[in-house]
Amino acid sequence: MGRRADRITCTRRMRTWRRPLYRPAASPARPIGPMPCRLLALLLCLWATGVLAEKPLILAVHPYLDYQEVMARYSPLADYLSRELGQEVVVRVGKDYKEHIGYIGRDVVDMAFLGPASYVKMTTAYGPKPLLARLEIRGRPVFRGKIVVRKDSGIDTLGQLKGKRFAFGDPASTMSHLVPRLMLHEAGVPGEDLGGFQFLGSHQNVAFGVLAGDFDAGAVKEEVYYRLQGQGLKAIATTPAFSEHLFVARAGLPIQTVNAIRDALYWLQDMPEGQAIMRGIKKDMSAMVPVEDSDYDNLRGILADLERLGVSP
User: Fold this and answer.
1) pTM value?
2) Which end of the chain has fewer CB within 10 Å, C or N?
């Protein structure tokens, strides 16, 4: 109410400060002394309405779902952080994983939500960033993916995918490309033995591509699989567990701000609106918990194996 009242008062004041349309030649010159006071009043009005306030902090999210859904999921979190920090936080959705990694790597955005493989790639290319928190799902800070087919496909094993059309998400995605790619290789189905494969950009696109019959199989994370399982998807393989998605801050963000963001994420589970915000991001999310760089060492090993096979995120 305070800012709204200030905005109304400011507007009223500025409406009274109007230059006359003309000035008769005989009129004495208007003194210029009061002008600095009027300028000061205008600046105070602008400050009160937020025009001159600090610029918003940018929370970047990779496009693992379509733009509208990502915005719907993370805007409540941005609103919560805005209140806790006393500074506006806005969501930015990357064009693709590559752009997203580059934006946080080059410190173009203030904080970012990253998948595990994107985090490893970002730190390899740009160096470490301040860690904020990682997701905890049903009390565990790890997640898995599924390789899926249609229920009526007659395919039950990875070995049966030779000569079949396969859908991946983004090349840099942990569960919709990198880990499943190594699993296929270890099952005797390297990329060249598939009947072809395409990158569809998101987990959701992969699932819909398989359900539509455009592809014989695809790779998605568990959340998407369980959401669309009832529409005719069947899982034929499950990935190992890897450390969950995480939030990082840009290098150079003031340490007080980093600590405030970190604390706000840790406290989320205890806030009145916290459960709804977390469920909006991921259905079974239970908390945001501390994270260490070493939590992703097992994934670094897998990415190194893929590099030797000529597969790069």
Assistant:
1) 0.73
2) N
